[in-house]
Design a protein that fits this description.
By secondary structure, the chain is α/β, with parallel strands linked by helices. It has two domains: 141 residues, HAD superfamily/HAD-like (Rossmann fold), CATH 3.40.50.1000; 62 residues, DNA polymerase, domain 1, CATH 1.10.150. Helices cover 45% and strands 16% of the residues. It has nine helices and eight strands. A six-stranded parallel beta sheet has the order 5-4-1-6-7-8, with helices on both faces. Strand 4, helix 6 and strand 5 form a beta-alpha-beta unit. The longest helix has 15 residues. The radius of gyration is 17 Å and the shape is elongated. The N and C termini lie close together (6 Å).
């Protein structure tokens, strides 16, 4: 029986793409670098904000660290301008809580932003949320998942992971957890090959949990 579900954040619970694009382009414009399109940003995200900036700046750029600092400052101030939960997410989180499950979030976004976004959009629906920090290696390393599981008192036999990318599938495998791949996020279905389940709507999450 599943007692805990751990979600990815960006592309799984929240559509953050527009705010990520605007913060990235703000940082790029500070150095006169070409701006990036929404579809380019979609392809750049998933491996943490440093990797996002490394992919966004021109090749052989020596201002990655400065650009990253500007990005973080701007994003921290503007990360709720366009960000919204995906349709059906708030209801399914409420339904999951009503079933008595605990809900965690593990993201490659920097930790302070993860906590603030979860608090603003989900409040008490999320029991534990962590992002990338010096003592938490990025996904697909399983460390963040294990940290949330420890905080929630969860074990592998009763925990499932859900995310929208190949990074999430690899994270789940590294943590020894079954994985639900979701198709409404930043990647398409072909990137979800290897997931134990692939779903097209949040309501399918509760069906899977009940069947496990």
């Amino acid at each position: 029986m599943i007692k805990t579900i751990i979600f990815d954040l960006d592309g799984t619970l929240l559509n953050t793409l527009e705010d990520l694009k605007e913060a990235t382009n703000f940082a790029l414009s500070e150095f006169g670098y070409p701006k990036r399109s929404l579809e380019e940003i979609r392809c750049f995200v998933g491996n943490g904000v440093r990797k996002l900036i490394e992919r966004a700046v021109p090749e052989n750029c020596d201002n990655v660290d400065k650009c990253l600092c500007i990005f973080k400052e701007n994003y921290s101030e503007n990360m709720c301008n366009h960000t919204v939960p995906y349709n059906g997410i708030l209801k399914i989180l409420s339904d999951i809580k009503a079933e008595g499950l605990k809900i965690g979030v593990v993201s490659n976004k920097f930790d302070s932003a993860v906590k603030e976004l979860c608090k603003k959009y989900f409040g008490e629906l999320i029991d534990a949320a962590i992002g990338q920090a010096d003592d938490v290696p990025k996904k697909p390393a399983p460390d963040g998942v294990f940290k949330v599981m420890k905080e929630l008192g969860a074990d592998k036999n009763s925990t499932v992971y859900a995310g929208d990318s190949d990074v999430d599938i690899e994270t789940a495998k590294n943590a020894g957890l079954p994985c639900i791949g979701v198709t409404w996020g930043f990647r398409d279905r072909k990137n979800l090959e290897g997931a134990d389940f692939i779903i097209d709507h949040p309501c399918d999450i509760i069906k899977i949990i009940r069947s496990m």
